[in-house]
Amino acid sequence: MPTPKRQSIEQTYEIAKERYDTLGINIDSAMQKTSEISISLHCWQGDDVTGFENQGQNLGSGLAVTGHYPGKARNADELRKDLDLVYQLLPGKHRLNLHAIYLESSGKKIERNNIQPEHFSRWIDWAKANNIGLDFNPSCFGHQHSNSGFTLSNQDPNIRNFWIEHCVAARHIGAAMGKATDSPCITNIWIPDGYKDTPYDRMAPRERLMLSLDTIFQEKIDKAHNLDSVESKLFGIGSESYVTGSHEFYLGYAISRQKLYCLDAGHFHPTETISDKVSSTMLYLDEILLHVSRGVRWDSDHVITLNDDLHAIAQSIVRGNFAHRIHIGLDFFDASINRIAAWTIGTRNMIKALLAAHLEPVTLLKNYEDQADYTNRLALLEEIKMLPLGAIWDYYCLKYDVPTRNDWMLEVKQYEHDVLSKRTDDVAM
Ligand SMILES: C[C@H](O)[C@H](O)[C@@H](O)C(=O)CO
Ligand SMILES: [Mn+2]
Hints:
Mn(2+) binds at residues 267, 299, 301. This protein is α/β, with parallel strands linked by helices.
């Protein structure tokens, strides 16, 4: 016997479907295509980018997490348990994006240039058991060798080599993850390098970075297991005046070396959008990575909301038919709200935006544009904002057997009561 809520969702869906039909929109195909897109959830939302090295270092490097909501994961088992719940609340099959500081070394201090696949074996086992693809990142921050503000572009060859070795090790770990899970792992390099104040020489650090990256990528690794990616940034706290790995630097680097380029939504001028960069970038690169984030005045990494920027990002992927060439990663961290809710809200929003982008009246819009009928194009683009997307979304959640509407919050609140509230600030070993 269907519940009254289920009945109401199904009835509303049927009425909504008629409306979409009149515009020639195929809802079944939109739902199917949306379900085929995997989003890579960033592990660092679960513990405020702390990681499990236990080296007592502050985050630094221009990264800042604010808030003191209780219950953050204190070890990898807790983080995996939290993630298990999040994945249950998301329609579709999704990935996990790990940073190197999330290693498990049984309490032994492992220097970052010595990390090995074995330090991630429990993550790999968990991923295999749950059929979850993995992505990876070297962690070039929150370390005594990043305190000067420079890592791969450091003037000191010893420090530079340390970070080169760390990134080489990260590629090997990425390859091991990709091989074990039978799905290529994207190993993405982001470094904080930059100057607080105006430099005299803007070129030398970039030359050093270019050479460091060439050394890191010297070894050929099977692309079936590992894909290399590089992420740019405009500025950070403490690198307001100059960032070595700027947009121009990495776009040029990625195109000349055929690497993936990572566009982070928080890493540009506030009036610039990554959605507008996608089509240009895709002309020159086979694949790219997105870090979907939300900057508020600066690269503040707020939880992504279903705003115009997010719709535009999803539209740029879907309209360009890029779903198989663009990898979607998330990058936000909010410690002022329940962290599991933060992951769930942000990821469900990304999926909603992808569903909405698959529900556009493509033929009509293309025809108007081809005929230079921009009046009808604008009228239709405004009209479709009023389509009953919520009814399709509710049905989509029913179809993929995950909580509909805000019901997922009941599960998060129960988990907060049963699990999170029992966690104290002490490190659980
Ligand atoms: C943890 C960081 O957010 C991440 O590595 C990087 O992608 C970034 O965006 C730094 O601003
Ligand atoms: Mn990022």
